[in-house]
Design goal:
Helix content: 55-70%
Shape: globular
Number of helices: 17
Radius of gyration: 28 Å
Largest sheet: 5 strands, mixed
Strand order of the largest sheet: 3-2-1-4-5
CATH topology of the largest domain: Helix Hairpins
Number of strands: 7
Length: 409
């Protein structure tokens, strides 16, 4: 039987493609530019060698424009980590010679000999991709907000420590409004305890600290030895406040978009009733765990790919069980966030967490142990197409994972 294997050596500006048959003979090879014309002609040229579904492509990445175009064209995409491919190079010689044409040939040959051992990418449902993009964008904006707030605090620490003290005491929205109104020590010089308390009250301050405490914190803070002018300090503070407000606004907008996308996602009813999962975290769980659910063959593979199980390294001389670093970091963050929240509303989850802590596990480790239990619940819900029900999925603390054929995909 005749088979064809394709190796794609990719770069930012040019790519190199080799087509090889099952006898290791090179059938075709060409170089293409990273342009629409180059990619379109390459996909058409590949179709001359057979239907796309019968033309697997090995490439040293799992994401990006090229991978998306290959999947959209119907090609099975086999991603390989560059380090794993580099470790295979001695198979083709010890000289360490490297060219784009040579790499595409080696990739095709690697696919020919070991492709059956490598996982293949599958096109993800469009709704899941949309949700994944929204939640990842939100995570990026959260990081940007943290960085912007840290910059603002550092700015206040250098030029107005009293403002920093009050900023840290007030609620976030009121704190930003305070700095926008009083960006410098001089602008707040005439403030009194009564005026500050009234100002905060008009803006809905929770009242955790009375005005007398806030004004004392403002007055007792050390004076900065800043040599900048008052107007410059005011401008720096106000610009940074505007940046923080803008990022907070984009996060709220993304939260609304995520909540809307979650409502229509087919997986949402399966997990929406889980304790303290929330709209945003539900979107993260579906967006990050959904693609893994769809390609996993067993619950244990699903749990391993999410990254909440350790890695065992054993030989005749040593044996170690260590933290799993090489995994989907976003998926692990999504499930551990949910697991940590769930123990505050679920007695079942709280018991698993407490038992892990009683065995001297640290909080992150105990949370991952709880996450493994929840992943078995999610697998059962997805496999059977049933919504989460504590009476069913937590019976005796065990989940039946023997029948690993999904009816929800």
């Amino acid at each position: 039987m005749y088979f064809v294997y394709i190796g794609w050596d990719w770069a930012t500006e040019t790519h190199d493609v080799t087509v090889m048959d099952n006898t290791a003979a090179r059938v075709d090879r060409w170089e293409l530019a990273h342009t629409e014309e180059g990619i379109t002609k390459t996909l058409a040229r590949l179709r001359r060698h057979g239907t796309p579904a019968d033309l697997p492509v090995l490439i040293e990445t799992s994401r990006g424009l090229v991978v998306d175009r290959l999947l959209a064209a119907g090609h099975p995409v086999v991603p390989v980590h560059p380090n794993a491919f580099h470790a295979m190079r001695p198979r083709w010689g010890a000289s360490k010679a490297k060219t784009d044409a040579g790499d595409s040939h080696k990739l095709a040959d690697y696919l020919r000999t070991d492709g059956h051992l490598l996982p293949r990418l599958e096109p993800t449902d469009q709704a899941t991709l949309d949700l994944q993009a929204l939640t990842r964008q939100r995570a990026d904006h959260i990081e940007a907000r943290v960085a912007a707030v840290n910059q603002l605090v550092a700015l206040l620490d250098a030029h107005w420590p009293g403002g920093k003290a009050v900023f840290c005491d007030l609620d976030s929205d009121i704190a930003l409004a305070f700095l926008d109104r009083y960006p410098t020590p001089a602008s707040a010089a005439k403030l009194t305890a009564g005026r500050l308390e009234a100002w905060c009250k008009r803006r809905g301050y929770s009242g955790k600290r009375p005005g007398s405490v806030l004004i004392e914190r403002l007055r007792s803070a050390p004076q900065a030895a800043s040599r900048l002018g008052e107007s410059i300090i005011a401008q720096l503070v106000r610009v940074q406040v505007q940046l923080v407000k803008a990022v907070r606004a984009t996060i709220r907008e993304l939260d609304t978009a995520i909540a809307t996308a979650v409502k229509t996602h087919p997986y949402a009813p399966l997990f929406a009733s889980m304790p303290r999962i929330g709209k945003v975290n539900l979107g993260q769980v579906i967006g990050e765990l959904g693609p893994i659910l769809e390609r996993a063959q067993t619950s244990e593979q699903f749990i391993a790919e999410v990254g909440v199980v350790p890695v065992t390294r054993a030989s005749g001389k040593s044996h170690s069980v260590t933290f799993r670093f090489a995994t989907n970091q976003r998926a692990r963050q999504a499930i551990t966030t949910f697991a940590d929240n769930s123990r505050h509303s679920s007695d079942w989850a709280a018991k698993i967490y407490r038992d892990a802590r009683a065995r001297k596990k640290r909080h992150p480790h105990a949370t991952r142990i709880l996450a493994r239990a929840w992943l078995r619940v999610m697998w059962a819900c997805w496999r059977d197409g049933t919504c989460y029900d504590p009476a069913i999925h937590q019976a005796n603390g065990k989940i039946n994972t023997t029948a690993d054929t999904s009816v929800a995909a």
